[in-house]
Amino acid sequence: MNTRQLGKNGPFITTIGFGAWAIGGPWQYGWGKVDDEESIKAIHTALDKGINWIDTAAVYGFGHSEEVVGKAIKGIREEVFIATKCGMINDGKGNAVVNLKPDSIRKEIEDSLRRLQTDYIDLYQFHWPDPNTPVEDSWGTMIQLQEEGKVRYIGVCNFDVPLLERCMKIKHVQSLQPPYSLLRRDIEKEILPYCLKNEIGVVVYSPMQAGLLTGKFDMSKVAEDDWRRKNRMFQEPFLSKALEFVEKLRPIAAKANKTVGNLAVAWVLRNKAVTAAIVGARNSQQVLENINADDYQLDEEDVNKISALLEEMGL
């Protein structure tokens, strides 16, 4: 599979990574019930097919995703680049709250190492900004963890340029993980140019907009406790417009014998600031479909058609 270097002097990772959010199972932002054995098979399929990194987070399933990943990589730890996140914790009532206080980060790293059954994490990231803690204090703790050998690289998720600049004054930010898709393009204006200029790797999440751009989305099949039922993109009038857009993308993807989901991933990867895309999967079949985006190069004609569709539909 194709690889790109993650930020300045960083590791080479495949342009598609295995996203382990959904395999965390039910929680505040869950995707419904999962079968752990099926999840492990999906991870093994991804690795067998050449994907070399997994993205998870301590908060996914309140630790369950990390536990499943830990079981899946047992015996092959050195062959897999593991990215996980800190900064969102259970408040004791089943609610995820942001906390990037230094002592909380230190507790989280130990818990993540235990669940992942490893003594180091390849990429450790802030999950969300914490308005109640100076980012300099949080970032300083990440640097200490790196110096202690508990993490190899340090990065952030969902940060804007001002926050990135505050971290960069102390130590280079290896990577940023922002949302990016055909339906969510706001990072193109400032964030992506800043990262490109400053050699910050960009690993985007939700390139298929949480399933909306797969070409297979059906709200009737979404679990009752699935977080998407409360998200505006999955409610009217936006939902119908988005699904109409998907139908108009179908002939473009079919021309290359690809799915709309493949097209959505290929579209984000064409941006020169983007290193890789996190593509979630809950079973091996989804993995096999997802990796077909790896060799999909959108030509200029297709890109222009897609841009015209977005403008025409007001998306």
Describe this structure in words.
- The chain has 315 residues and is of the alpha/beta class.
- The chain has a single domain, classed as NADP-dependent oxidoreductase domain (TIM Barrel, Alpha-Beta Barrel).
- The protein is 36% helix and 16% strand.
- The chain is built from ten helices and twelve strands.
- It has helices at 36-48, 64-72, 102-116, 135-147, 161-168, 191-197, 238-255, 260-269, 284-290, 300-313, and strands at residues 3-5, 12-14, 16-19, 53-55, 81-86, 88-90, 96-98, 121-126, 151-157, 175-177, 201-204, 276-280.
- It has an eight-stranded parallel β-barrel, surrounded by six helices. A two-stranded antiparallel sheet has the order 1-2.
- Helix 1 packs across helix 2 and helix 1 (36-48) runs parallel beside helix 9 (284-290).
- The model has no long low-confidence stretch (mean pLDDT 97).
Brief synopsis:
The chain has 315 residues and is of the alpha/beta class. It has 10 helices and 12 strands. The protein has one domain: TIM Barrel (Alpha-Beta Barrel), CATH 3.20.20.100.
Total of domains:
1
The CATH superfamily name is NADP-dependent oxidoreductase domain
Helices and strands, in order, run as EEEHEHEEEHEHEHEHEHHEHH
CATH class: Alpha Beta
Terminal-residue CA separation: 32 Å
Helical residue percent?
25-40%
Structural class: alpha/beta
How many beta-strand segments? 12
> Helical stretch count?
10
Relative strand content: 15-25%
Any idea what the radius of gyration is?
Answer: 19 Å
